[in-house]
Amino acid sequence: MEDKELVKVEDGGSESVEAAVESSPVDGGVNLPPPVDEALLAEMIEMGFPKNRAMRGLFYGGSTLEAAITWIGEHDQESDINDPLPADAVAKPRKERTAEEKAAKAEELKQRIAENRRVQAENEKVSEKTREKERIQRGKQMAETRRVVEEQERQRAIDLRRKDKEDEARERERLRQLLREDRIRRFGVEKANELEKRSEEAAARKKVEMDLQKQKQSKEKAMPEVSGQGETIDLEKALKEMSAAVLKLDGSPADVRKICYGTMLKYITNIINQPREVKLRKIRRENAAFQKRVIAADGGLDYLRAVGFREDIEEGFLVLAHSDMLLLNRVRGDLELYSSKT
């Protein structure tokens, strides 16, 4: 059984408490410091007193906050004021103070507490201002980072559009050369040059017409596009299929072939002249005139399919599923030639 010694600790000459002091080692020979009021100790530490100094004040000065702070004030210059409280410490009796001394110490205590609170409040204001400055700085940095990222995104979009235009120009030139080679193969250089010149003139006329219609079109509600209109067409495949269809048409009577070429030329010309007119891009499959003028000629329907007309977009109709004006202008030139030769 461990021995304990009860020591009377006098608090300001008015009241006393019992403090248990360990007289023998515990926990493997380690001596623990005498106990003090943990709540008062925490309050004094919060007020800014070092822990060891606060423990000494509570132990030697008394069991109240006022007595502890008073003792610290009286012994502030002692060299061991911040040393840990010894395990065998014994509180010494304190001299009884007069009423005037007690009042003076109470006033001094109030002033110290008020000063500590004022310093803490000022420190908190400084800390709050510092945090606010840091928050504002972080906000500015985030805004600048966002601006840089957005600017980079805009530049990438500009570069991508520029590259797309360059790729489109190269592809148009490739298709132009491909069409020219096909015409030279079918009609010879001289006729191919003539057709190319006529196509270029037609394209120039079309550009002028479109420029003149811009103001009018901007005021009118845009016509709805035909489903599938934005699709692309495989030019090489189209040229092969068109050539095969022409070979089939060559087997039809001259008058039937001429009517077929003339009718298809009218379809294509109408689309080129009014590319946004939906009804011109559709041909009713069972239309009597269409049956008589195009279907009657072997290869006529195949030629329209090769140009890009499809039967799977709208039931009962042939629908042109692309807007490649370069191809359509070439087709118009070919049909004009075929019509003139028939």
What do these coordinates show?
This protein has 342 residues and is mainly alpha-helical. It is 64% helix and 7% strand. The strands form 2 sheets. It has a 3-stranded antiparallel β-sheet. Strands 1-2 form a two-stranded antiparallel ribbon. Helix 1 (38-47) packs across helix 2 (51-61).
Largest sheet: 3 strands, antiparallel
Strand portion: 5-15%
The percent of residues in helical segments reads 55-70%
Number of strands: 5
Low-confidence runs (pLDDT<50, min 5 residues)? Answer: 1-31, 219-228
Shape label: rod-shaped
| Distance separating the two termini | 130 Å
Overall mean pLDDT: 79
What spatial order of strands do you see in the largest sheet?
3-5-4
Total number of helices = 10
Order of helices and strands: EEHHHHHHHEHHEEH
Alpha-beta classification? mainly alpha
Radius of gyration: 51 Å
Secondary-structure blueprint:
Blueprint: E1 4-11, E2 15-22, H1 38-47, H2 51-61, H3 65-74, H4 99-187, H5 189-219, H6 235-249, H7 254-273, E3 282-284, H8 288-295, H9 300-307, E4 309-310, E5 317-320, H10 325-341
Antiparallel strand pairs: 1-2, 3-5, 4-5
Helix pairs in contact: 1-2, 2-3, 4-5, 5-10, 6-9, 7-8, 7-10
Using brief descriptors, characterize the structure shown:
two-stranded antiparallel ribbon; 7% strand; 10 helices; three-stranded antiparallel beta sheet; mainly alpha; disordered N terminus; 342 residues; single chain
Short description:
It is built from ten helices and five strands; from the N terminus they run E-E-H-H-H-H-H-H-H-E-H-H-E-E-H. With 342 residues, the chain is mostly helical.
